[in-house]
Design goal:
Elements lengths: L8 E3 L9 E6 L6 H9 L16 H4 L3 E5 L4 E4 L5 E4 L14 H26 L19 E6 L1 H12 L1 H4 L6 E7 L6 H8 L14 H16 L5 H7 L8 E7 L7 H13 L3 E7 L8 H15 L7
Parallel strand pairs: 2-3, 2-6, 6-7, 7-8, 8-9
Antiparallel strand pairs: 1-3, 4-5
């Protein structure tokens, strides 16, 4: 399956900076990893803790971070009249994201499997190979050094990956530091909400049902819907640390006409219902693009996840 997806576009730290952290970013509909990288990493914004008035870019703010931009496979996209575009899954209607959800299932299933492999590969690259590097310096604990994120459809795809619990099933939860979703929405939201609270009204569960029960209900619903199965050993992985316990940063423009802000707020509320540690920001004057304050907040979020390891001093 991976062969049908273009190779990820990768930007590594330039010497003397070293690879300490990895940010995996998923593009939106009708674009590609390299195109997303070009616009996102070149977007200037004021320094979060300014020493000068000179704007910086995300790459400058995170000099020790490796940026990984995967690309969705070419697939027929209904909203573009069936034209093939690089997408994580099919989209039928920009005005109502609940239309055509059945057609999303195959693409989401394929992309979850593919992206799980991407995350696993990046985690392995940050694993300590020995107690010390060749220069004799200790590598230290690399847990939480990979962060997943996305813009628009990439944000939606990232949420699907998290809710499926496939990363937990593969034993990767400890390696993921958090998730950031920009201008996104949650596919299958209504079905997920119904699955989370199923049984409460008929007496099978209490109002006080724990977050873990809700998370497993949501994951089981999603995996069944998109036809992804996990074996017994992988189920054990889902019982441990959850990605929903990690830091989550969601951001949205208040003037976003393409991805309505209420869709982003609905995703926020769903994740909070599952016990997600969500930082939500909505920006006045921002449409379906990136904003200066948003980028500053993103850097602050990553600083909270990674500490000073990857952040520009």
């Amino acid at each position: 399956m991976a062969s049908s997806y273009p190779a990820p576009f990768i930007i590594s730290p330039t010497p003397p900076n070293t690879h300490q952290t990895t940010l995996i970013l998923l593009h939106g509909t009708s674009t590609t990893g390299p195109e997303f990288a070009s616009s996102f990493l070149s977007f200037p914004f004021p320094q979060p803790q300014p020493k000068t008035n000179t704007p910086i870019t995300l790459q400058q703010a995170l000099p020790n971070t490796k940026f990984v931009f995967p690309t969705g496979k070419l697939r027929k996209t209904t909203v573009f009249g069936g034209r093939e575009t690089n997408a994580w899954f099919d989209v039928s209607d920009f005005g109502d994201r609940t239309i055509g959800e059945d057609a999303m299932r195959g693409g989401i299933r394929e992309s979850i499997v593919y992206l799980t492999g991407i995350v696993e590969d990046e985690v392995k690259l940050l694993e300590p190979k020995s107690e010390c590097d060749e220069d004799g310096q200790g590598r230290g604990d690399r847990s939480g050094r990979v962060v997943l994120g996305g813009f628009s459809q990439g944000s939606a795809m990232g949420v699907m990956l998290i809710l499926s619990r496939m990363l937990e099933a593969r034993g990767l939860a400890a390696d993921i530091g958090g998730f950031t979703g920009l201008s996104g929405w949650c596919p299958f939201r209504l079905g997920l909400e119904e699955s989370i609270f199923s049984g409460i009204l008929d007496g099978d569960a209490s109002i006080e049902e724990g977050y873990e029960g809700r998370r497993e209900k949501a994951a089981s619903y999603l995996r069944q819907l998109i036809d992804i199965r996990i074996d017994g050993n992988e189920e054990e992985g889902c019982q441990g640390e959850s990605l929903l316990d990690k830091k989550i940063f969601l951001a949205h423009g208040k003037e976003d006409a393409k991805m309505k802000i209420e869709w982003g707020a609905q995703m926020r509320d769903l994740l909070k219902t599952l016990g997600g540690d969500v930082w939500w920001e909505a920006y006045v004057g921002l449409g379906h693009w990136y904003g200066e304050e948003e980028m500053k907040d993103l850097v602050s979020f990553l600083e909270g996840v990674w500490g000073g390891t990857a952040i520009r001093e």
